[in-house]
Structure formats: structure tokens, C-alpha cells
Amino acid sequence: MAKAQGSGSAQGVHTTTNDILLQAHTFSSPRHTTRYWEAGPADGPLMIFVHGWPEIGLMWRAQVEAFASEGWRCIAPDMRGYGGSSAPAPSEAYALKEIVDDMVELHDHLGARPAVWVGHDLGSPVVGAIAAHHAARCRRAVFVSVPYSPEAFALPSLVPLVDRELYPADGYPDGPWDYYRFYTTHFDQTVGDFDADIPATLAAIYRQGNPAAIGKVYRSALVSANGGWFGSARRAPAVQPDPTLWPPADFDALVEAFRARGFRTANAWYLNDTANLVYAHAAPDGGRLRQPVLFVNGNWDALCDITHGRLGDPMRSTCQDLSVTGLPAGHWLPLERKTELTEAIQSWLKAKGL
To answer: So what's the pLDDT on residue 20?
Structure first.
């Protein structure tokens, strides 16, 4: 079991939800440092919330507060390259196995009791890899927005699932994953464009879902044609953040985290398809998950909605005990539907005996 070199409260964020106090701690091993947010009783059942791009652990505030008030020990780490956690320079440091190893070390530090793991966006592949490669650590798995795939979250796995009626191959070879391809071919530009005005970038990224987007070509399919997410402007438009998504103080913390790090390390998560595929193929039993699995779909998520295409097919064929529920939201489900997501997970856990 890894030992903490530095462990203790670095910052407390007081909330009004049943007087729940989120505390920030830092755990360091010889290979990595993880800052994580914690709430709830130390002897409660363990629930670990894994964020994705471009987030920090505080994005789970509403869910952490709710479950902690019910007696769960809730942990929300800043992932590698984000927030207060280590951000190594080499792009290969952001291969999925490295990130999973971070979580294994953190889990050991927390006592290694089997946990409920909850992942959103690129946090979902992390949770999926833990469930597949380290099954004893995962008693239940929840995937939010991005479904599980035993073939890894990688372009060679995603592109064959593209809806070719909506995205004909001659016009949209990568379909809505064109933005992902652009990251791999124009990496420095993507970083520079996002870093040009970090508050505006984050405000532009975090917008509510729109039901009118379903069934139409999504803007992520046009990134290459437009020369980047923001076109010739090469910077995000001036928009105000949506306070119904991020509480203003947490949005300020998000902005400060990206001002300190920029987008380079966050975007580097997209640069390791080859290594991630090799890692996925090494999973026991072909990556089949035997634990109960919940997938929460954003019904207005124009990129990852599984009800209008084949993106969810690998999950359906490899999860032995799968439940699927949908919420009227876009991609940022933990922020757009704070209470509803919590209730969906609560209901499912109760149905599964927890």
C-alpha cells in the first residue's frame, strides 16, 4: 500500500447542504501527487467521483454533498494534469494506464475498500479501466455521458460506430469525432486557442444542452473545416459563464486551475490512442464487466447520446448487469442536472442492494 508523504486538509469549502464540509487533501507517492476533495464520514462506504475534460474535482460538488449527507465517504480527485495534481510534461504520461495507476495508488491510500466509482466524460474510460483491470476495487460502476467500451476511448474504436446517415464518410470521415482528430494533428494550435482567453474558453465550453441539436450535424464535426474550435478568431468568443452550471466560486477555482496549467496537459489525454488500445486489449475476459453498471445518458448530448446511434453498442454487449437511464440534458450532466443525476444514482444503488 502506498504511503502518504503529505496528507491533510489544504483547503476547506463550507457548504449549506446539511453542513457538509468539502476538504482538500494531497496524497503523494514516489510517482505522482493527487489532490482530492473529500466529504462524509471516514468509515462510510466509499464512493469515488472521476472527472473528465476540462474539469476539476469540484465539478462533483452537488453529488458529493448529497451522498456525503447520506453517510457515504465521497472522494473527488483532481485528475493527472488538472488542478492541484501532478502535471508531467511528456504527452505519454497521460496514457490511460498511467491515470488508472494514479487512482489505484489513491484507492490504496484511502484503505482499498471496494468502492462505487462514478466517471464523467473522459473520467468514464478511467472508471471502465478500473472495473475491467482491477475488478476487486469496484463494487459498482457508473458512467455518465460517455459509455463504457472494452476497446478504449480511441479514434479507431469510435469512428466505426459513427452514424453514417448523419455523417456520410465522404464529407465527415471522423463524424463528430473530427475535433479529436484535430487535436492529434494540430495539438499546439488547440492548446494556444484555448489558452488565449481561459475564462472565455471555459464559459464557452460549459453551456446547457439543446434538444434542437439532436439529429443535426454537431459542431464537433466541423472543427477541421473551420480551422479550429473558434475558427479564424483563434480564441473563444466573449460569453458569460452560466451560473446555473458552475457555482461562481467553483467556476473561479476552475479558471485559476487552468490559468496555472493551461490546456496542454488536459488535451494530452487525447494523444495516446495506441497505448490505450494495447492496455484495453490486455484486460481480463476481453474487458467484460461483471459488476452492476449504470449508464446515465444525456438525451440532448449531440456527441455522446447513445439512443440515436451505435455508440452504446459495445457497452450493451460487454456489461453483464447494465442499467441505462436518460436525463434531459446535454453533455455536462453533473452540472446541468445536479439533483436528477444524484437521484438516478441513488435509486439505482438502492435497487442493486447498496
So the answer is: 84
pLDDT < 70 positions in the chain: 1-19
Question: Do the Cβ atoms of 327 and 296 come closer than 8 Å?
Answer: yes
Q: What is the 3-state secondary structure (H, E, C) of the chain?
A: CCCCCCCCEEEEEECCCCCCEEEEEEEECCCCEEEEEEECCCCCCEEEEECCCCCCHHHHHHHHHHHHHCCCEEEEECCCCCCCCCCCCCHHHHCHHHHHHHHHHHHHHCCCCCEEEEEECCHHHHHHHHHHHCHHHEEEEEEECCCCCCCCCCHHHHHHHCCCCCCCCCCCCCHHHHHHHHHHHCHHHHHHHHHCCHHHHHHHHCCCCCHHHCCCCCHHHHHHHHCCCCHHHCCCCCCCCCCCCCCHHHHHHHHHHHHHHCCHHHHHHHHCHHHHHHHHHCCHHHHCEEEEEEEEEECCCCCCCCCCCCCCHHHHHHEEEEEEEEECCCCCHHHHCHHHHHHHHHHHHHHCCC
Where along the chain do its domains lie?
9-351
Give dist(CA 255, CA 258) in Å, integer.
5
Angle between helices 61-69 and 338-351 (to 10 degrees): 40
Beta pairing class for 9-14 and 21-28: antiparallel
Burial of 100 (0-12, 13-18, 19+ CB in 10 A): buried
* CATH architecture group of domain 9-351: 3-Layer(aba) Sandwich (3.40)
d(CA 200, CA 168): 33
Beta bridge partners of 295: 143, 324
Q: CB neighbours (10 Å) of residue 197? A: 16
